[in-house]
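> Could you send the Tripartite tricarboxylate transporter substrate binding protein prediction when you get a chance?

Sure thing. Input:
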Amino acid sequence: MSTRRDFLMKAGAGAVAVHFAGVAAALTGSVSANAQSNGPITMVVGFPAGGGPDLVARALAEAGQRELNQTIIVQNKTGAGGRIALDWLGNQASDGSAFGLTPAAMLASFPHVYRKLSYDPNDFVPVCKICDYHVSVVTRSDSPFSTLKEFVAWAKESKRGTFGVPSRGSGTDFIGTLLSKAEGLALEPILYRGGPQLTQAVLAGEVDLAINLSSNFVELAKAGKVKVLAVSTATRSPFSPGVPTLAELGYPELIFEESIGIVAKKGTQEKTTHRMQEAVRKAMGDASVLNALQILEYRPDFKPAKQYGEDLAMASERYKMFVQKTNFQPLD
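Output:
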């Protein structure tokens, strides 16, 4: 018997993967009679100034505007986990005057984890992919375990354990839940308002594990304040080659890399999105852009619109699998 959740998956979220796969095959959604804007370009980012996506956007804007010979203004419209920015972009003209730089989750995950969105993911077309980032599983430096195997043994013996995440229904949340399920544990997920709050919590010993983007722990790991137990990459990360992957520790289903890319409103002319795509391609060779990615431990992985659309479709299917395996109930 089909449930409302099944219906949402088939009729709503499932359509997202079909949409992006279709866009990848032929960018028919980008054909429009709208004239290209020659004025300043707004690059909207759904996260605060100084955060990872913002730093990437500003580095790309500086290098990209030299290629376009147009000013690119980075505008932060924060809140609701990045949803407000896409809501804003969806209400702009499809004339190339506005683009969005966003993690894939806003388009690939949110249709699966929210009952209703303020925007329609099908109202956007991929422009290009910029980079990938991964998740780290960390504990405080003075915790009684130094490996994930030791943590699992400790949790089984003590019949307790917690993991902190910055948001429900995120890749970090699914990793913690599936790890707990794989080992027959009853780990308690603790939700924090964001990355900084989660970082402070693990340092204070409020949670046994913190699961979040690796960029949140780079300096803390270097300073010896946290121990990185595992990373979510398919193979060992070049940023931390001494840290094992979740896959090699026996959890291949926990391979997880999220992408950041640029999207435009559906209806934007293909020549306009292609022009931005090529400007970003060239900007990706700029030292300032590569340095920003290096500092954040983001792996450069430029892909043009077609391949980026295919990646988004695959990401949507991966999140759908996470939702099904964890019996996740969509959020309001």
